[in-house]
Design goal:
homodimer, alpha/beta, TIM Barrel, 2 domains, 14 helices
Amino acid sequence: MNQFDFNIVSSDCGARAGVLAAPHGDIETPCFMPVGTRATVKTLSPRDLAEAGAQVVLANAYHLFFRPGTATVASLGGLHAFMSWDGPLLTDSGGYQVFSLGPAARVFAGGVEFKSVYDGARHFFTPELSVRVQEQLGADIIMCLDECPPAQAGPGELQRAVQRTAAWAARCRKEQQRQDQMLMGIVQGGTNEKLRRESAERILEIGFGGYAIGGLSVGEERSAMLEALVLTAGLLPADRPRYFMGLGDPAGILAAISAGVDMFDCVLPTRLARHGSAFTASGRLNLRGAVFARQDGPLDAGCRCYACQNFSRAYIRHLVTQKELLGLQLLSLHNVTFLLDLTRKARQAIIQGRFQDFMKSAPAEY
Amino acid sequence: MNQFDFNIVSSDCGARAGVLAAPHGDIETPCFMPVGTRATVKTLSPRDLAEAGAQVVLANAYHLFFRPGTATVASLGGLHAFMSWDGPLLTDSGGYQVFSLGPAARVFAGGVEFKSVYDGARHFFTPELSVRVQEQLGADIIMCLDECPPAQAGPGELQRAVQRTAAWAARCRKEQQRQDQMLMGIVQGGTNEKLRRESAERILEIGFGGYAIGGLSVGEERSAMLEALVLTAGLLPADRPRYFMGLGDPAGILAAISAGVDMFDCVLPTRLARHGSAFTASGRLNLRGAVFARQDGPLDAGCRCYACQNFSRAYIRHLVTQKELLGLQLLSLHNVTFLLDLTRKARQAIIQGRFQDFMKSAPAEY
């Protein structure tokens, strides 16, 4: 395969199983990508991630720009060498921070003025700067700077975000120098059908190696999210990868795979771990519960992860309640493995033409 | 070998290389034993410990008595099953908490009244209770309840501690039911020669499978500590293991090995990690230092650990300064490996009859 070829191996009722040829290795889709915001997936080492089955790891250009600094990462051989992950990497552009930082990010036509979360200093992020930073970091896949408004944004704000996102996408495309990185465009438009269509049209017009569905999972109703997701996925070219940004709940991931989405990322598995919670085939468990104090079984009987193969719920509860960090590590490893296995099993089901059955057999408690 | 046989394989100028046959595996001495106070060595999994070369892991009967409770651990199959460590384990008796908890521990002739660090409730720890708790936990090696006074204790307090420690040791010996656990006696007496001799005499009179040197590393001058250590080690029978409690600095460990000590434990490697520090062959590094921001080399060029084989000082500094827990894990793994390798190399040197040279070549910066 040539660089960034995307072969659809199999499709089944709209769901697709593919292979994306990234410079640091092939990515089998659908895939879940663990998030290592500051060049580390919280509490997990690269070998933990490899064991869990991670193929692509995310990092965040905004955070790495500030700490340790783009030039520092570059001087140490780039992001792969820095974090000791030799598989594919994807960097987010900083666009999500427009949403997540709220008033600390002011959006202008030219770019975003960020107040650094580290020292309060103001920095102006342009689409061009975002691409240059991501080129210096050197991930396999890089993202356009976009404007991601919150769910409660009015039509005017949404419309403006669609326009800026398109204008910035064109500037990113123009700025890109490195040919060994795949630049992805991002479709915005909230849950508004007209704006989604307009955004998709404008981003497709520019043309990218892959397309991301942004601006969802930002506080909107679930039904509206699913509707916008299905709509947007259907607007994207069938022959390029589709990436739904920021979705980490198992049921949501399965719904998006049904709609033809190929890539997912979310901080949910590690965030849940910090709250003492575990994904299981029969719903989430919160290990702080006294009910687990003497339970000898694993977090999830069907799970192959190191935590489930070696430790009881009672022990993990002990670690969590005593604030012992091994508890956080074991829950993180389990939750990340759980989502990686979910997408891997979905892929197998698609290839074997039984994706509908797989969906039906998915626990309602997801 | 029969259970708890202790074979001295080789000795060299007072230093000894031995093998202690514990129920869960042979222990090659001299050895460093990582401390898992609450049934977990902070941030390290059992497989991390095995990879680092740990043979014995410590846990603390005082802490496990309160959380999760002795009966809970027993109902889950005992401490080995609970923490998923199938090698040898050693539990401390709670005696150290007499020192470390200060006013929250009141010592009486009958035992220690502890104010629980968990909920403030008062509990009376007798020598008998300590043995029963440790029998329920099921470690390979268990310790007598002793009174460990602080370095500033006056002669009267030291004398009283020697007497109580001896009286309690006799009660522990009498209480012991399980024959598959080795009970160790503890010699007290601070840095007072007369009291050390008296304590050793009384503990030896009772007779134990092994002997610990307690009451040092509690704030005394280093020279006084070394003097008391050499004195006490010389008073203990040559054919049984000698355990120096609570010593974790590399130079101190080497000095104690010279004096014929076989076993060591300390929280220092994981505590240093929490402070961002690493042992190296040329002294300790504090990774918070700006000087490490772009250093591409490993923590310690001679180290075989996962952290040193895969990550730069710059990356670990990034993790530490950003409070990313992977930094703490990598430093803990490195520091524990460092002490395990130190004792392993000392053992090889003893066997090869070059222990003096090994001592001479040890970096002064230790």
